[in-house]
User: Fold this.
Amino acid sequence: MRVAVIKSNGYIDTKLERLLQFNKINGDFMTKFTRNSLKMYDTVIFTYKNNISNLPKILESIVLEKEILVIYVNNTLSTSEFYNILNDLYFSVISEQNLEIELLSVLNNSLKYIKEIAIYKDKYNYIKNEFETIKLVNKAKNILISRGFSEDDSHKFIQRKAMDLRLSKKQTANLIIENKIDI
Assistant:
């Protein structure tokens, strides 16, 4: 687990550093960051002491990308500036008074669910791609059938052309649909 802590140059940094080291968590302390620099981390921690203009909007944009967990350490119960993302799985507010207790709990539990979501997203994308391939191949088969092929022959034609051209069935089906293959 890799954690980025945006430095506030105060006692909270020391407290966070001690907590992360004690629990053997890799924590990098940064004074400046970009969205791309944060993508190499699983979690980013901000505090109320960070002197960053428009911090709620920045946190909201990071959270809505749904790539990393954002933790905000606050010293009050007020969270009204985060109303858009308060119930998002990728965002947690931790009380400074309970930092030792809440930080590890949030890191362990939230990251577990975020990793599961990433696995399901990968599976979803794979299934979506397979479905798209099936739709295109069926569309290409219908074109071939309309030109006198049987369903079995059209299927074999697509497979044979894909192997001959060293393309995927999806790419071959696209070429047939676009009428770029001699039939």
